[in-house]
Amino acid sequence: MKITIKYSGLLSEMLGVYLEELEIPSSVNLKELVEILASRHPQLRVVLENIPVIQFYLNNREVLPGSSNIVLKDHDEITISLPMFEGG
Predict the structure, then answer these.
(1) Cα distance between residue 78 and residue 4, in whole Å
(2) Which residues on neighbouring strands pair with residue 71, listed in sequence order?
(3) In whole angstroms, how far apart are CA 85 and each of 35, 44, 50, 75, 88?
(4) Residue 41, φ and ψ in degrees, nearest 5
(5) Can you spell out the DSSP letters for 13-65?
(6) Residue 9 and residue 70: Cα distance in Å, rounded?
(7) I need a surface site. Which of 28, 61, 73, 78 has the fewest CB within 10 A?
(8) Where are the domains of the chain?
(9) For residue 4, is pLDDT > 60?
């Protein structure tokens, strides 16, 4: 099946890619997709290991922590971004 991945903001700059389309096996869940992406982009693995909260959106809806078992469907769009922090 085919899915679209969008990397936003600083994450896009770090990886050197904004958008990619991937062919993945059917029945892949979000957690498995993250592992596939980390193997394609070693810098992403570093980010995942060092930043406690990464934001994931599936078809423009935020995926809550602990929902990584969501099974993806053909033509899904996943957006991955780093959280925004404000100084005080």
Answers:
(1) 6
(2) 29
(3) 26, 19, 15, 31, 10
(4) -130, 90
(5) HHHT-SEEEEE--TT-BHHHHHHHHHHH-HHHHHHHHH-S--EEEETTEEEPT
(6) 24
(7) 61
(8) 2-81
(9) yes
- pTM beyond 0.85, yes or no: yes
Contact status, residue 37 vs residue 30, Cβ threshold 8 Å: no
Is 3.10.20.30 the CATH classification of the domain at 2-81?
yes
Of 56, 34, 60, 29, give the one whose Cα is nearest residue 45. 34
7 close to 55: Cβ distance less than 8 angstroms: no
Contact 84, 53 (CB under 8 A): no
Helix axes 30-40, 42-50, angle to 10 degrees: 120
Q: Measure the CA–CA gap between 78 and 3, rounded to whole angstroms.
A: 8
